[in-house]
């Protein structure tokens, strides 16, 4: 089984809808991240969490919120989806020995 | 501020050697990663450099010069499956701030 899983893998939604992307991990890492990736722009950090009680904004947090329900679960919500949030979204965990990140398979989100 | 530069695209021939460069200016430095990402897939770990010098792992090698803020990834005996994006990422401090990623270099391997 994969160490970092994301659901759904693909989602098409309409402008104005609220949507939640979920991430679960079995690596036992305290640190978790949400990124979006757009062609030519690389990975951009949305939110990150160093433990269950710690939530931090990344460089592009506007229009997004997160919830860290447990060490293993970190969810990303789009409160009111807009077309320019169409992107590939990745969740990642991080070990604190070498700070290597382990990525989930990604969620392809399309907002129409 | 944090800044990582790497070329946007490169093309190389199957069987050849290619070097992908990365320069960085970050507020502190704890280590540098290279990740490989095939189109539409998740990034996967390739290498990690903390000290100056060359780290070799099979067909892939990574070099770091901390004084110059410079790294490169060297891919030997290129194969078609090496066509992917290669992401350079830096840990700015002793792990208390997130990884900073470059925008990636898209490598195309041609026959």
Brief summary:
By secondary structure, chain A is mostly beta strands.
Which labels suit this protein?
A: 112 residues; mainly beta; four-stranded antiparallel sheet; B: mainly beta
Describe the protein in words.
The complex is a heterodimer of chains A (112) and B (111). Chain A is mainly beta and 112 residues long. Chain A has strands at residues 4-7, 10-13, 19-25, 31-38, 42-51, 54-57, 64-70, 73-78, 87-94, 101-103, 107-111. Chain A has no helices and 11 strands. In chain A, strands 2, 4, 5, 6, 9, 10 and 11 form a 7-stranded mixed beta sheet that branches. A 4-stranded antiparallel beta sheet of chain A has the order 1-3-8-7, with no helix packed on it. The model of chain A has no long low-confidence stretch (mean pLDDT 95). Chain B is globular, with a radius of gyration of 13 Å. Chain B contains no helices and 11 strands. Chain B has strands at residues 3-5, 9-13, 18-25, 31-37, 44-49, 53-57, 60-65, 70-75, 84-91, 100-101, 105-110. In chain B, strands 2, 4, 5, 9, 10 and 11 form a 6-stranded mixed beta sheet that branches.
How does the SSE layout of this entry go?
The complex is a heterodimer of chains A (112) and B (111).
Chain A: E1 4-7, E2 10-13, E3 19-25, E4 31-38, E5 42-51, E6 54-57, E7 64-70, E8 73-78, E9 87-94, E10 101-103, E11 107-111
Parallel strand pairs in A: 2-11
Antiparallel strand pairs in A: 1-3, 3-8, 4-5, 4-9, 5-6, 7-8, 9-10, 9-11
Chain B: E1 3-5, E2 9-13, E3 18-25, E4 31-37, E5 44-49, E6 53-57, E7 60-65, E8 70-75, E9 84-91, E10 100-101, E11 105-110
Parallel strand pairs in B: 2-11
Antiparallel strand pairs in B: 1-3, 3-8, 4-5, 4-9, 6-7, 7-8, 9-10, 9-11
């Amino acid at each position: 089984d994969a160490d970092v899983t994301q659901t759904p893998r693909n989602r098409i939604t309409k402008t104005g809808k609220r949507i939640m992307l979920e991430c679960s991990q079995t690596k036992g890492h305290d640190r978790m991240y949400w990124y979006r990736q757009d062609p030519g722009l690389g990975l951009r950090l949305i939110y990150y969490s160093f433990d269950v009680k710690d939530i931090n904004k990344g460089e592009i947090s506007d229009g997004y919120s997160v919830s860290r329900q447990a060490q293993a679960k970190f969810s990303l919500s789009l409160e009111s989806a807009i077309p320019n949030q169409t992107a590939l979204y990745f969740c990642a965990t991080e070990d604190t020995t070498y700070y290597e990140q382990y990525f989930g398979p990604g969620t392809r989100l399309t907002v129409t | 501020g944090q800044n990582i530069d790497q070329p946007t695209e490169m093309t190389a021939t199957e069987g050849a050697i290619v070097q992908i460069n990365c320069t960085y200016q970050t507020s502190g430095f704890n280590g540098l990663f290279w990740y490989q990402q095939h189109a539409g897939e998740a990034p996967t770990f390739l290498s990690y450099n903390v000290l100056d010098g060359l780290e070799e792992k099979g067909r892939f090698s990574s070099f770091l010069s901390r004084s110059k803020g410079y790294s490169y990834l060297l891919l030997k005996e290129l194969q078609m499956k090496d066509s992917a994006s290669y992401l350079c990422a830096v840990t700015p401090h002793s792990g208390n701030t997130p990884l900073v990623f470059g925008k990636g270099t898209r490598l195309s391997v041609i026959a």
